[in-house]
Amino acid sequence: MKLVYFDDFKLGVMNGDKVVDVSNIVADIPHTGPHNLISGLIEQFADYKAALEVAATGRGVPISDVRIRPPLPKPYNIDCMAVNYMENGTRDEPAAINAFLKSPNAIIGNGDTMVLPDVPATIFEGEAELALVIGTRAANVSQADAMDYVFGYTNFIDGSARGLGPGANTFYMMKSRETYAPIGPYIVTKDEIDDPQSLDVKLWVNGDLKQDFNTDDMAHKIPRIVEWVSSIHTLEPGDIIATGTNHRGLSSFQGGDKVELEVEGLGRLSINIQDDLNRTWARTTRLEHADSGAEGVSTPQLTGKYAPS
Description:
This protein folds into two domains: 2-69, no CATH class; 78-303, Fumarylacetoacetate hydrolase, domain 2, CATH 3.90.850. Helices cover 14% and strands 32% of the residues. The chain is built from five helices and 19 strands. The protein has helices spanning 34-43, 45-55, 171-175, 222-232, 286-291; strands at residues 2-6, 10-15, 18-21, 61-62, 68-69, 78-81, 99-102, 107-108, 113-115, 123-134, 150-162, 181-189, 200-205, 208-214, 240-242, 258-263, 269-274, 280-281, 301-303. The strands form three sheets. Strands 1, 2, 3, 4, 5, 6, 7, 8, 10, 11, 12 and 15 form a twelve-stranded mixed sheet that branches.
């Protein structure tokens, strides 16, 4: 099943390329807004699944005729795995398991805009990721039981403002900015994905394919991720765990860009990029930059405020 928010945060289910309004079916779930309506539904999904499946066979409206909203407007927690891919065999061994938190205020949805702030970042990037949606309150979960706590999946772009200091304290300033967690277009329940550890992940910038990898390259697999994160803090229904990216295809995000992400089976997430400072970088990927023999991890800024003089 595919769950989607649309227009003024009506809850819908997908029927092919149409969305069916199911707001009336879930109206009795206690909530104060769309953020805890969806988390309440996820927590009680077994009680509503049959009715939603029947509704999903009904007549809907074309998804192209509605405004798609973030399917999880404000999760309690957004945990993002760090350096969690083997980079197509270029890493000799997995990096130590690690993660960071993003602010729930970073969430945006399909068709929304990521804003590049007026800060001296060396480059702005976005990482293509498979995100887990937690279905049941989870604390100290074992790997053997981990998948029982996963409700479904969604596309996730981990926005990054690279090169901000001081020292090693970079994740907060780099990752947790508003608009830096695009998700969607919908949540796909886990029964629709046969093997989340074997999904193609593709990200395009202005139609040019930049990231192209498979989740089988993940260093720490999904059960280990859930075990480790839940050993640090309790996960709530509707929380997000972004599982990391293969960095080799990362490239600059610039004002006016259209960015599209498609994790196999999860639909296509499309966002826009806004930069009021009109800064520019070469369109080189990290792999291309490394192969050229140039210095640094990524291509330097070319023009605009904060460009090297």
